[in-house]
């Protein structure tokens, strides 16, 4: 049985092993066997019912999430604005630059990245965020599902390398979302 939290993160796997089988199947030199007893002797009554409810919600089969979270947002700016962008995100907000290349920078926000391209055309208008990127371990599978759902894929899955310091390798693809927003599926190598 697998115990997971509300976000689907694997917390603990329960394996039913008898003492006899444990001593025969598991060498103490190569495997550390941890036996955990949870019951009335170890938990207060109110905690036992909470634990039992949480176990009933878990799946005995581990689930693979297709989308793990937001990887980065991407914005565009003009050449003359990049210093102001760096000042705001680095000096004002306390973020840090994790990559820099001739056409842009990538800023670490702590739990996601902000990518800023210096390729704007001088106009500021609503919609200056270029796209939303979702982190995934299988770009191709996600794009297959997107296509099957009838959404337009405008950049097929492909591998890229940004010649930055350090070098940046990833697999990516783009589609249009239901409101016309650009969505990238991104697998950092």
Key structural traits:
34% strand; 2 domains; 189 residues; alpha+beta; two-stranded antiparallel ribbon; eight-stranded mixed β-sheet; 2,3-Dihydroxybiphenyl 1,2-Dioxygenase, domain 1
Question: Could you please describe the fold and organization of this structure?
Answer:
The chain is α+β, with helices and mostly antiparallel strands and 189 residues long. The chain has 2 domains: 2-57, no CATH class; 69-188, 2,3-Dihydroxybiphenyl 1,2-Dioxygenase, domain 1. The chain is built from 4 helices and 10 strands, in the order ββααβαββββαβββ. The chain has helices spanning 19-25, 45-57, 82-92, 139-148; strands at 2-4, 10-13, 69-76, 96-101, 104-108, 113-117, 129-135, 153-162, 168-176, 182-188. The strands form 2 sheets. An 8-stranded mixed beta sheet has the order 4-5-6-3-7-10-9-8, with helices on one face. β5 and β6 form a beta hairpin. The radius of gyration is 24 Å and the shape is globular. It starts with a strand and ends with a strand. 12% of the residues are buried.
